[in-house]
Structures are given as C-alpha cells and as structure tokens.
Design a protein that fits this description.
Length: 586
C-alpha cells in the first residue's frame, strides 16, 4: 500500500469541508468580522460604476462642473472605504488562517507520531512530510485567499447582475445568456481538474519520499557509488510528475480559455447592442459605461469563480489526504480499561505461546514462543539471522501486538497496561543508536527532559561517555550533526546507554551492535553495559561471545521457534545442537 485512493466520486465532497468546522470554530468571530469587511469592500466596488455613470453624465451631458467635482471627490471616498475594508479583512483573515493551519499541522504531526510501527513500515517518511508541507499549504491557500476571493466574487456576481438589470434589463439579458455555458464548462472541467491535481500531489509526495530515503541512507548510496542511479530514479519520478502536471496545466488552460472567451464574447455583444441603443438615444453614454463595468465585473467574477472552483477541487483533494492520515488508527491500541503496575516495577517478562505475523495473509514469523526473563536476569537470544530475535524484542514494548498468545510484565498482559507506563519500564539500546541533531547534553536528556545537568552527567559517567565527551572541543555542547554523524559508532552507543541510565528502567532490551567497535570503545561499551544491566531484567539480541557468556541463560531461536535453552557452556556440550553448530561456524 503506497497511498490510499480517496473517493473521487463526489463532485465537491462536503466531508473534508465539514471536518474543517471544529478547527474554524475558535476563530468564528474574527472570521465573521472579516466577512463584514469583505461585504463593505465589495459594496464599495459595486457602487463605483454607478458613481462613474453620474460623473460621466455630469461632465458630458449636463456640463455641470460643480457636480463633476463633488462626484469625483465622492469617488475618492468610495475607493478609500474599499481600501480600508480590504486591509482589515485581509489582516483578520490571514492571522486566523495561519493559526488554523498551524493547528491542523500540529494535530497531524501529533497523530502521525503516535501511529504504530506497522504504519511506518508501509509509508515513507518523506511522503508524510510532503503531506504535512504541500498538502497543508494548499489548504492554507484555500482558507487564506481562495475562500474570501470566492465570496468576494460571488458578491460581485450577484451585485453586478442586480445592478445590470437595474441599469438596463435588455442588455442584462444578453449578458446573462452566457451563464449556463460557463456553469456547464465549470462542471465539466472541475472534475478533471481535481483528478489531475490529486495526481500531482501524489507524485510530489512520492518524489519527496524517494529523496528523503536517499538522504537518509547517504553513506550507503555513496559507498555503492549509486548517486547517478538515485538521480536517475529521482528524474524518473520528476518526469512522471511533469507529465501529470502538464496534463493538469492543459486542462486548466483549456478551461480558462473557454470560459474567458465565452465571458468576454458577451462583452462584445453588449458593446454592440448598447452602442445601438446610445445611437437611438435610449441610453446615455454614462449609463453604457456603467453597464459595461458591471458586465466586466460579472464576467471577471464568473472567470474567477471558475478558477477558484478548480482550486477548491485541488484543496479538497489535499484535505481528503490529510484527513485520511488523521483517520488512520494506530494498530497498537491503548486498552479501554488499563491495569496499573505495582511500583516499583519488578521487571518479570514472560512470553506465553506467542505467535506473530507482521500482516494478515503473511506467514507467521514466530510460532508459540514461550520464554521468561525473571527480575534481574540476563537472557540472551541467540540464533541465525532472520530467525525472529528482533521481532521478539519489538513485541515487548508493543511496537507490534502479538497475533496469538500473550506477553506479560510482572504478570499483567502488556495490552492491559497504559502504553506509557509499559514503555517507561523498558529501556532500549538499539544496534544503531540514533541521535537527534542537538547537543550531546540534549541527546542524553532526551530520556528525561526534566533531568538536571547533574543527572545527565551522572548517566554519562555511568555509560563511560564522559571519557570522550570531555575531550570534544565543545564538550557537552558539541552538536552531533543529523543522526549523530559526527560521532563514532562506539561513542553513539555510549550516548544511547547513558540515555537508558537516565531513564532508569526495570527492563533493558539490548540489540547488540554487529559491527565491531575499536578496542577502546569496545572496552568502554562493555563496562558501561556491565553496569547498566546490574539489577535489571535484560533481553539481549546477542552477537558476541562475551555477551552470551555473561548471560544467565541463552535462548536459541530458529525459524521463529525456541529450540534450545541453557547456559552458554551447557548449550555447547550438546553435540548436535544448533547453538553448538552456530558457535563452531562463528
Ligand atoms: P533476527 O532479528 O533474528 O535477524 P527478525 O526478527 O528481524 O530476525 O526477522 C524475522 C523474520 O521476520 C524475517 O523473516 C524477516 O524477513 C521478517 N520481518 C522482519 N521485519 C518485518 C516487517 N516489518 N514486515 C514483514 N516481515 C518482517
């Protein structure tokens, strides 16, 4: 599943718009005031041709200089009112919409960051960030300008038509004859535009997803010298993007040209018919000019409404996407009624006949696995690569939920515990420690933002990280670069260990690094781990002999089943045992 396809059946689907309601509510009064000023500005705009009519007739028909002066001054007043009203409206509206979109962005981010591992294995992060930026930018345009422009143009349309009928009913009839044509065009093209636009947004998200992935794995890309290939892949995606974008532009261009021609064609008809009336003395020149202005207003309004309608379709496509993300339920759900752990957490972990598959329809990767880690015990998981060790480790903090069987912590099913309490009880040291782009101090304090400098230092000391931190030019304030690229593997690992010290969990899950560290780092990491595991229940995905030796028990996993259990020495004595064989090879 790359991205779900939203329903494109409805012409304007009201659902995404209705969903915006609660977001708009806090700003209802501001938006209402903005609308009043919009009305004032539009009214001023509509009054202008009427004033113009008297101005022209005063000058050309009556030759009244005094009237001309007064009317010109009045006209200035009308424009001033329009300017001020526009200013207030735009200010009120944009300050509200900026906040509304920020709220929606935040809600989307807050929602996404809580989704389960399953979601993130299916969606690329770059695609998600693209949705957060470009789809929401479309929505912002909708609220910020398109909606107010739409209202303004509707007012101009209605007001213009009224004034036209009022000025000259016969001419009005000629002009309005084109309206059904324009509406028909809008209906035909609108749907095509929405489809094209959703296609463009999807391609943008896809391309961004790919770029993000390439940057994320920059070392791999460069070490295999695949820069050219990646660029080619990106170019391929961009070409797709260009194809759909050009298609959209073509639809748009055709749409606007057709609508423009129809609208302005009617202006030509009005000029002709009006000219005939002026020649016959049935119409003053001022009234014809005023009428023309109204006709232009109406034509421009119809054109803009059609354009905006196209934009609406784009924004609705974007909104649908965003709300779809917001509707994604985490596959790992908080229990309706939760049981609390007795404090302090003892750290007894037990897997009871756990079977697991990553998705429905896929084969089980774990088959009735049962194992226990008693409080304070160190258990190593051994076995070939791909046997299911990492999977077991990720079921305990509920990154995924078991398919069958259950996992308990201090005798309570982990699914009955509040997620936060469960995860607070577990400290994880991953194979590749991921750091954030802040300072070393911030990176350690990530485990507990309330920690004092004192606490952070104590944790770093326990993790044997002080040794290198204090030698760095900026010490604790050294910035580690994105994902910690400025530190060595061993250094990153010690920071990750310091984090867990600071967290002080009852249970530690350690995925041992496969890549070998330099001897000095290795020694420090060993010592740090030695201290970290003191008195904590520990599950280690073991790759090193020194670790398995230290474990109280080794549980050997093969093809998702527990096949052997015992101490390192016991397991070695089993001649035909998998462990003994693995050990001989390794
Ligand atoms: P180990 O840690 O022992 O090397 P893993 O637990 O990583 O093994 O993998 C066990 C099996 O589960 C492998 O066959 C692997 O391909 C599969 N697997 C791992 N992660 C996923 C995933 N996100 N989706 C589907 N299958 C997965």
């Amino acid at each position: 599943m790359s991205s779900a396809t939203p329903s494109r059946r409805g012409f304007i689907s009201p659902r995404p718009l209705a969903r915006m309601g609660p977001l708009l509510r806090p700003y209802a009064s501001r938006l209402a005031i903005a609308f009043v000023f919009l009305l004032i500005a539009a009214a001023a705009g509509l009054v202008f041709p009427a004033v113009l009519r008297y101005l022209l007739d005063a000058a050309f028909e009556q030759g009244d200089r005094g009237a001309l002066d007064r009317i010109a001054l009045g006209l200035l007043g009308v424009f001033a009112v329009q300017g001020i009203a526009n200013y207030i409206q735009v200010r009120l509206l944009s300050s509200s919409t900026e906040r509304i979109i920020a709220t929606l962005r935040e809600q989307t981010f807050a929602h996404l960051i809580r989704l389960s591992a399953a979601f993130f294995t299916e969606r690329r992060t770059g695609e998600l960030t693209s949705r957060l930026s470009s789809d929401l930018a479309l929505l912002q345009s909708l609220l910020g300008t398109w909606l107010s422009e739409f209202s303004r143009q509707i007012l101009f349309l209605l007001g213009g038509v009224l004034m036209m009928v009022f000025t000259n009913p016969l001419l009005a009839l000629t002009t309005l004859a084109v309206v059904p044509l324009v509406v028909g065009a809008a209906l035909t093209f609108g749907r095509a535009l929405r489809r094209a636009s959703t296609g463009v947004q999807d391609r943008v998200a896809e391309a961004m997803g790919m770029a993000d992935e390439a940057f994320g794995a920059i070392r791999t890309v460069q070490s295999f010298t695949r820069e050219g290939e990646e660029t080619r892949r990106f170019r391929g995606l961009l070409q797709d993007l260009v194809t759909v974008a050009v298609q959209r532009a073509r639809t748009r261009a055709l749409f606007f040209s057709v609508v423009g021609f129809v609208a302005f064609g009617s202006v030509a008809a009005v000029l002709w018919q009006g000219g005939v009336q002026v020649l016959a003395g049935q119409l003053t020149a001022g009234a014809l000019v005023a009428f023309l202005f109204y006709a232009l207003f109406v034509a421009a309004a119809v054109g803009s409404i059609a354009t905006l309608f196209g934009h609406f379709q784009e924004a609705i496509g974007a909104a649908t996407r965003v709300f779809e993300l917001l509707d994604t339920e985490p596959s790992v759900q908080e229990a309706a009624t939760t049981t609390h752990l007795t404090s302090p957490v003892q750290g007894a972990v037990s897997l009871e006949a756990v079977s697991f598959r990553y998705a429905d329809g896929q084969p089980n990767v774990l088959h009735e696995v049962s194992l226990t880690v008693a409080p304070g015990e160190v258990v190593a998981l051994g076995g070939r690569s791909g046997s299911g060790k990492t999977t077991i480790a990720s079921l305990i903090p509920r990154f995924w939920d078991v398919t069958e069987g259950r996992i308990t912590l201090d005798g309570v099913d982990v699914r009955a515990l509040p997620l936060q309490a469960l995860r607070e009880a577990i400290g994880m040291v991953p194979q590749e420690s991921v750091l954030f782009s802040g300072s070393i101090r911030e990176n350690i304090a990530y485990a507990n933002p309330d920690a004092t400098d004192e606490d952070v230092m104590r944790a770093a000391r326990a993790a044997h990280a002080c040794e290198f931190i204090e030698r760095l030019p900026d010490g604790w304030d050294t910035r580690v670069g994105e994902r910690g690229v400025k530190l060595s593997g061993g250094q990153r690992q010690r920071i990750a260990i310091a984090r867990v010290f600071l967290k002080n969990p009852a249970i530690v899950i350690l995925d041992e690094a496969t890549s070998s560290l330099d001897t000095e780092s290795e020694r420090y990491v060993e010592q740090a781990l030695e201290e970290l595991l003191q008195g904590r229940s520990t599950l280690i995905i073991a790759h090193r002999l020194s670790t398995v030796r230290r474990a109280d028990r080794v549980v050997v996993i093969d093809r998702g089943r527990v096949v052997e259990t015992g101490s390192h020495d016991e397991l070695l004595t089993r001649e035909d045992g998998i462990y003994a064989r693995l050990y001989q090879i390794g």
